[in-house]
Write a structure and sequence with these properties.
Largest sheet: 2 strands, antiparallel
Number of domains: 1
Strand content: under 5%
Helix content: over 70%
Oligomer: single chain
Number of helices: 17
Strand order of the largest sheet: 1-2
Distance between the termini: 23 Å
Shape: globular
Low-confidence stretches: 1-9
Length: 410
Amino acid sequence: MTPTSLAACERDPSSSRVLSALVAGYVALLPYQFQVDPKINFAPADCLMVLVLVLAAGQLMYRQHAWTVWHFALAGAFLTSSLVAAIRFGTLEQYELLNKDAGLVLPFLSYAAITTAVVEWTDIRRILRVFTLSVVIENVAALCGFLASYFFGFANPFAQYGGLRLSGMLLDPNAYGGILAMALILLEGSSWGPQPLFRGLPFWVCRITLGLGLILTFSRSAWVALGLSLVVLALLKIRLAGRLMLTLAIVAPCLLLVMGTRFLPIFEQMASRPKQVQGRFDLIHDAYGNFVQHPFFGGGIGSFRLSEGEIAHNTAMWFLADFGVVGLIILLGFLGWFFVKGWFSYRLAPPSERPIALALLLAHTSMLGLAMGIEAFYQRHWWMVFGLIAAGYSLALRRIGANQPTRLVE
């Protein structure tokens, strides 16, 4: 069966429009989150995934090349870790049950929805445009709120830490910096070739506002995320990396001029934060200590949070402490699979689509960098990239032949 006929047979016009619309709405809402309880945040995007189950469950496909043993091993690791925690503590904490175990269902559902909705490279490009544009629009509003707080003292939800760190609608400056870094590297990574995500003035508006927002989050984790993806970009397309670094080098001094003389000491204070750096190293040390006590299957999900009173702020160390070396191997295998397949997609994709494949590889790299500073595993936009990389890999394999997908729900 040819790629064209395969795509045609997968699309039932009415049902595919519903699923595509729900996925697009989900992606558009990713930059938004609201706090409803000190321990519970509400993400409107999740409502769209619920609607997928209600309105389009029968359209979900199992694409052979989008799923791997690492997906199922990951689910098994959570079940095993929950069992270990229940045996150790006699119960499973509600936070872990709802946010970690049950919370894993929605990322997997979004992955299934995205890999089903994408049947052509144009679908990937459309989703990335919706995502980037949504982040930019929300960020422009957040920047206005931050400047109002900085210059006039108007308190607003866009700025945290006394109005000194941009947090947008994701409530946390590090998480917000991560989504800005991803949107920026998606924009830059796809800016070559015949069909970039944006051209001309819209491209520059996106680039400058995303760069400003990223600086004002004062998120070192997000800066590391961007830096790591720039290293990969420089290895593959050094001119693109140089162009972005030159832009940031020009924007930074302009920002200092606009913000005034009092901004420089604020920048130095917020960018250094030595006590927080030491605190993160202490958490990593304690996580390693927990691992030494329970090396194979870890202390059980939630054990580190209960012993320390806070999360590990490092995805790998969280897995090491709660899931043990077995869980860490599964995590690294899972994340490594997407990096390898992202690279294969870039190499196998049609020449006109390689910029999109490269942008996805860079976005995944940026999230790997972010995961060094926060527990990024549940970040919804990372799972969006997972789904798009897997879908792109499946599309790339079509050129050499692939198996037809089967429905997840009949």
